[in-house]
Each structure stands twice: as C-alpha cells, then as structure tokens.
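ARCHIVE CARD
Drawer: 12
Card no.: 0347
Subject: one protein chain, sequence and derived structure
Cross-reference: see card 0346
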Amino acid sequence: MAAPYSPSVRRRRLSAELRRLRAEAGLTLFEAAKQAGMGKSNLSKIEQAESRTVPALTLNKLLDLYQVEDATRTTLHELSKLAGKKGWWAHYKNLMPQMLADFEAEACALRTYQAQVIPGLLQTHQYADAIFRANEVRDDDEVAQRVAARITRQGVLHRVEPPKLMALIDEAALRRVVGSPQVMGEQLRHLTHMASRHNISIYVLPFTAGAHPSTEGSYVIMDFMDPRDASIAYLETPVTSMYLEEEHEVRLFTDMFGSTQSCAMTPAQSLNVINRLLQDLEE
C-alpha cells in the first residue's frame, strides 16, 4: 500500500478554510456538493486535505456558493497554487492570521524553546500585555487585541483531551522582570500551577548550561495525531512567520530540542527554581 499523502501547510490551511466557509454558509457537506455540482466524496476529500490539488474551476464554484469576497478569493487561490509545494513558508501571516492557533488546536504535542520570554501558551494576561507594549509602537487597541488573541489561544490547554506541552525555558526568561515585580510574581506563580497539570512539563535551562544547541533562538515544534500530517517547526520574527515542514528541517529542530533538553533541569528541579525565584520576588 502506498504511503499516505502528507499535505503541505498550505494544503491543510486551504482545506480548513473551505470547511469553515461551508459551515458559515450553513450548508451540510451533501448540500454544498450538490449545489456546486460535484460528488459528496470529492468535496469531503478536498475538505480533509486528501486531494493533492483543487482545480481553479472547482474552487471558484465553491467560493461562489459560499459568497466569498474578492480579497479572500485571491488568498485562497494563492494557497491552492502553492498547495503542492513544500519547504518553509514565509510572508503569509497576513493571509491567514489564525494559522498558528489553528495548528496548535490540531496538534497532539507541542515542544517549545523560549530564550527571552515565557512561552505564549503559558503567559498571564498582565505579562502578555507588558510584552506587547515593550516595542513602544503599538497603541492600546492593538495591544488589547493581541493579548486577547494570546489568551484565547491558551484555551487549547484546557480541553478535555489537551495536547502535551513540553516547554524549555531559559533561566534568563524567568529572571527578567517583565512589567513589574508584581506582574512577574503572578507569572511565576502561574507557571507553578500549570506545571502541576498532567499534560504540561516545564524544563528550566540554567545559566550553568553555557552554550547549548538552541543558542541561536526560540522555536516551536508541533506534532499531529493523523499520520498524514507531518510535524511542523514554527519560527517567528518581528516581520514574518516561518513554517518549516521538510523532513530534514523538522528533524534538525527535533534533534536540537532533545539535545537542549538534556542540558536542562528536570521538571521537579525546575519547579524548585521557579518557587525560589518567586520567593525572592515576594520578599
């Protein structure tokens, strides 16, 4: 039997968007397929990313049926054109701003290394607010929107069957007082609470580790339950986002995470360090 088709990041996003648009139009899979003049099984394969391509004519029929506006149509056609290509994907965060949250929601496991700040999924409201204000160019409305989006993303950790989260946090991120001692104290206390959850493991990378395999920057690796969905490495810069999906690229980050984890403290040791830092702040 042939290996299952592994859709690219773009193909997965296109399928997810088409499912969302059909739901917003209030149509069942059968109703949408019938009105678009196509078989139910064909539409199902498109929505589940089981089809390698979506012909432009078929895509237009669906977008006409869902009454999609021109700007979104252009985006989806661009996704369709790129769907067969793999490799890193940059400069597309404005096309699908919900992309990271969507992948986090689909993931069965998340591995992250953060060098400068607490991982976004573990940040408190006040800590996130202080982080977004740090560049001194965002107004109150933009900061509020970004904080709300970050807190909403964290809902994935509160599901009945949440993904596993392994967070490697550099000691520098724990010692840097963000916002105020009160804000940082609340953040550290929140970490101790999250560390008690069965699906969350926190590892502190101490200063004594010296140079380590992840010295060059922060990243996230996302794994998925469906064997067709290859793991993805995610990197973010001030100007763009990158999703690495080639096997050798993801393997590099996976090996890097494992080697860095071997330099870190155990979860029990890490919790002790966080509690000591919290005690120092409170005193």
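Annotation on reverse: The radius of gyration is 21 Å. The longest helix spans residues 9-24.
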